[in-house]
Fold this sequence. Notes:
- Chain A: Its EC number is 7.1.1.9.
- Chain A: Keywords: Cell membrane, Copper, Electron transport, Heme, Iron, Membrane, Metal-binding, Respiratory chain, Translocase, Transmembrane, Transmembrane helix, Transport.
- The structure holds 2 protein chains of 2 kinds.
- Helix content of chain A is about 65%, strand content about 0%.
- Chain A is mainly alpha-helical.
- Chain A is globular, with a radius of gyration of 23 Å.
- Residues about 1-25 of chain A have low confidence and may be disordered.
- By secondary structure, chain B is of the alpha+beta class.
- A 5-stranded mixed beta sheet of chain B has the order 3-2-1-5-8. Chain B has a 5-stranded mixed beta sheet with strand order 4-10-9-6-7, with helices on one face.
- Chain B folds into 3 domains: about 5-70 and about 80-110, Helix Hairpins (Orthogonal Bundle), CATH 1.10.287; about 120-260, Immunoglobulin-like; about 265-370, Cytochrome c-like domain (Cytochrome Bc1 Complex, Chain D, domain 2, Orthogonal Bundle).
- Classes of the chains: A mainly alpha, B alpha+beta.
- At the A-B interface, helix 4, helix 10, helix 11, helix 12 and helix 13 of A face helix 1, helix 2, helix 3, helix 4 and helix 5 of B.
Amino acid sequence: xxxxxxxxxxxxxxxxxTGGAAVDEHEHHPSGPLRWLLTTNHKEIxxxxxxxxxxxFLIGGVxxxxxxxxxxxxxxxxxxxxxxxxxxxxxxxIMVFGAVMPGFVGLANWMVPLQIGxxxxxxxxxxxxxxxxxxVAFLLLLSTLLMPGGGPNFGWTFYAPLSTTYSPPSTxxxxxxxxxAGISSILGAINIIATILNLRAPGMRxxxxxxxxxxxLITAFLLIAVMPVLAGVITMMLMDINxxxxxxxxxGGGDPVLFQHLFWFFGHPEVYIMILPAFGIISIIVPTFARxxxxxxxxxxxxxxxxxxxxxLVWAHHxxxxxxxxxxxxxxxxxxxxxxxxxxxxxxxWITTLFRGSITFETPMLFSLAFIVLFTIGGxxxxxxxxxxxxxxxxxxxFVVAHFHYVLVPGAVFSIMxxxxxxxxxWTGHYPDERIGRWHFWLSVIGVNLLFxxxxxxxxxxxxxxxxxxxxxxxxxxxxxxxxxxxxxFSQLLFVWVVIKCVxxxxxxxxxxxxxxxxxxxxxPSPAPLHTFETPPDLRRVAG
Amino acid sequence: xxxxxxxxxxxxxVAGFERNALANEWNMPVGVTEVSRHxxxxxxxxxWICVVIGAVVFSVMFxxxxxxxxxxxxxxxxxxxxTTVEIFWTAVPLLILVAMAIPATATLRxxxxxxxxxxxxxxxGHQWRWHYDYIGEDVNYFSNLATPREQIDGTQxxxxxxxxxxxxxxxxxxxxxxxxxxxxxxxxxxxxxxxLAVKKxxxxxxxxxxxxxxxxxxxxxxxxxxxxxxxxxxMPVVVHAMAQDEFDTWLAERKQEAAAxxxxxxxxxxxxxxxxxxxxxxxxxxxSCHQPxxxxxxxxxxxxxxxxxxxxxxxxxxxxxxxxxxGTPMPAFSGTLNAVDIAAVITYERNAWGNDTGDIxxxxxxxxQLSP
Lengths: 544, 372
């Protein structure tokens, strides 16, 4: 059921606990040049994660633009196929593991303790270690581009044996970097679970938590369940490449399809790892700007849990064309179709939250509304892909590329942007510039649709994914996509500008920056002091 | 390339769903088999279901956004749950999905029934070409991309079937159930022809099964659908479907050609003869990795020009081509090229691009290695 504590009481109570001079006594964090390296403060580490995520988003974005320039017209113009394959692979790896996941972890670092009334993450030193693994991992990954034979060129799904027997020598470094990123994710997930389960303010029951905290709790369990599977599969690759084993080498008695089963057993939950926290964010922002409580709080929690459980039962829908037995095809088709039900519940709940609200359209709300529409379009194409006989035609075409970019870009990425616009006043004490924000939003929405919508048609018309050159009937779609790609890509510079501008100054934000906001983070001052909730807010219901 | 403006194309596309003339460019092809028509039907059914649900959901959403703006003085209500409504919108999608799953299941079962085929063709994926073997007919050949390099590099105008044309298509009879057995000699490929609604992965160490029964004679084009390395974009699939009697004639001719090609094994070939044939084989089979001038793409694909280790040891060279090199992309050609082609290509490699060894490898010497 929905939170039972009247929002007002929460805010009043907490304001008296935090803020003020008492906080300053505890400011004994590292200073000087090593401050950011040694910090164990959840807010500083959250900031580091977010800066890292943004940096990777821009690097991965430049790679996407290289792809879009090459695909602007048929023929090979800018790059050779060898390099093109490295760009598609690195773009995928960087966006998934370097931009989207760390983006959500950064938001969790900042907001989970603030939303549950905890002073910090449960394991602060581990938190520092989780973060600093990432820059090392991704520097290593990027450095493979300069190695002999180039970087990974086998797609972000790195199917064996293309990624083992037939891979460039740098693959071993790719494996090491992925191991490091994986360890970072597991440690981060452990920390989030420990924090949520142990450090909630007295009186805050699980069903009182915000949806963002709930979705992250479930996401963290998914991470712990599947990251070790990824670690296992890349270790088997490592053995095949360097130690003469034949896990995935048919000539030695191995099984290339085993790779895909293992990869997608990790990979499908991974997809939901990248979208569940987005559901949480949207479930917070929509009620704030509709000034109405979230409709169906409990069903949202149950839907999230259902999606998480189903995510372990659908992995082979990525493999409909590998020649699974009929009974397996049917099983995975049915389970995949089932995912539409809890996902539909979420969309219906958001829309019913809007119904009879009192709605305003600040930038975070704009991004959230675009999320609902465009993510739903991605969901529809997902439902189409679930139909196995039709999937034989869609599989490995641009239709799939369109589908997963719709759920990941105007889905996951828009939700992160919405969250940044929403919480910037809390982080910096200033409102982000609403005018630039709106420009950023509209250019992004137009760009993202021009970029990805034509891909549906290209795929249906028969264009396979991951090709640097294509037949003439796909030319117009690709030209439109490339123009959209540049529009979307360059619009993100506005985002960088608005964030920098907001950090430097702007309209001062009060503790409760949005009038419709009800969660605990709005009870601490803006900007949030380095240490908050050192004495936890008491949320126990007082009799009478 | 058509010069239609992007906007005009988008507008035409919306109309295109209504008009068949454009449908093929904007939508999944209906295709030329019973299965492909069923698949198209499923595709359109689920598409319209999504359109209707989308129209309802987004209408409510945009109505709410418009009607309940605070700037128009909307006051927020405070309801936040309604069990009946929530059960309703959980159950209704479930029913729609069940309704959708029934025809999908029927089509899938049909697609999986490859029994009672009248012709079997083994399809083998190679980096980066397809190999077709008419099982039991002694006819097998490679199917290579036929688009000239100049068109890809843009120094020549691209023709209509750019990147979708091959030197020798897969020839199939119409109105016969043909079973396609898929495998691969190296990495995973995927054999796909949209008009047949057949897409099946070709996986090393596995033999996958698919089937088709083409209704209309014609030429149907597709591509490799699974990323298989550098030239993934350059290994198209072309199927030429013809009437049964034409097919029989074609098959008989191919059998004769195969016999003629093999008959050259016993005679002595001259250097110019071998060089001429070797250049052809090299161009269609070897050049994609080792490059047209033998310079290779180190470290994955070694150079052949001035490769002393290779030139000093003829036996090693023959062994490499015949048996391949385990643990590298170099495949064994013993099963896919005949003795004449292997002898010719080795001779060519040892005498081209400044490799002036003067070595001549006779087909008879290779034949001895192929059938010991």
